[in-house]
Amino acid sequence: MEDLPVVITRPGERGDVLAAAIEAGGLPVARLEALRLEALPETAEQRGAWLDFDQFRRVVVVSPFAAERLADALDRYWPQLPVGIDYYAVGAATAAALHRALGVRVHVPPAATGEDTSEALLQLGSLQRLDDERVLLVAGEGGRALLADTLAERGARVTRLAVYRRIPLSPSPGMRRRLARGEFCALVVSSGEILEHLARWCPGAALNQPLIVSSTRLATLAGKLGFRAPVVASGATPAALTAALAAACHPQEADVDQDDLEKG
Q1: What CATH number has the domain spanning 6-34+169-263?
Q2: Domain pair 6-34+169-263 / 38-166, same fold
């Protein structure tokens, strides 16, 4: 099992960081590009929201790519960022992208929840009563309606902007063979859409291998799709996923140093 690679599905630069963290832990990595993110052309609705950006009380961003698209738009329309807006991110990577691009303080899911999910973010006290507040939700095309619906139920006037689309990609012939034979130490997935997309290429052998996911919601989905060995990491960060991998692939060495992982 030690000679088999860990298959990761995270795209782009964030995938590079995750791969480096896993390899630093002594495990080889095989990249599986399951989705491509593509920015959507600006619509009249988007332009209106950017121009009225100072009218929003709260801005919720669901992914690092959504954060990048928001920052690009604000750079065009607002040379000086409006004040009095609270920013929220579903996960640590999205919060980091927002802070890096805009220099703003970002609210993230409570640490006590142990997860970077929409459900966890909605537990924040500042999102419980939103009487007639304007809230901008910056996300991708499609996706879950939980955030928008729940914020609206709590009194917010929600504007949801889809600023990018996800384009599913088929695995390469070599990767399809690897999945069919279960020739990997573990599969790492932190997106429900990717998990559902890949399930069609994961027969019995693949379903029996460890699947590392970033939330209990994904573990539940994995069970419904037939995966028999989901392992829930403590979050979607490289440190959390690498720690879960250590437990799954090297159980005798599961007491990894979290401080060292965070540095990776």
Answers
A1: 3.40.50.10090
A2: yes
Q: How far apart are CA 61 and CA 33, in angstroms?
A: 23
Whether domain 38-166 has CATH 3.40.50.10090: the reply is yes
pLDDT at 257: 41
The C-alpha atoms of residue 151 and residue 159 are separated, in whole angstroms, by 10
Q: Counting Cβ atoms within 10 Å, is residue 1 exposed (0-12), middle (13-18) or buried (19+)?
A: exposed
> Residue ranges per domain, the chain?
6-34+169-263, 38-166
pLDDT digit string, tens, across residues 175-200: 999 999 999 999 999 888 899 999 99
Place of tokens 């399930």: 199
Q: In Å, what is the CA distance from 16 to each residue of 21, 30, 33?
A: 9, 11, 12
Residues 6+ apart with CB under 8 A from 69: 39, 138, 163, 164
Which residues is 31 bridged to in the sheet? 8
Task: Check: CB of residue 254 under 8 Å from CB of residue 244.
Answer: no
Number of other CB atoms surrounding residue 81 within 10 Å: 14
Q: What's the rounded Cα separation, in Å, for the pair 104 and 100?
A: 8
CA–CA dist 226, 63 (Å, integer)? 27
pTM of the predicted structure, to 2 decimals: 0.84
Q: Kind of pairing, strands 86-89 and 58-61?
A: parallel
CA 193 to chain centre: 11
Residue keyed to tokens 């303080």: 105
Q: How far apart are CA 53 and CA 56, in angstroms?
A: 6
CA 222 to each of CA 1, 76, 128, 170, 212: distance values in angstroms, whole numbers, following the listed order: 22, 41, 30, 19, 10
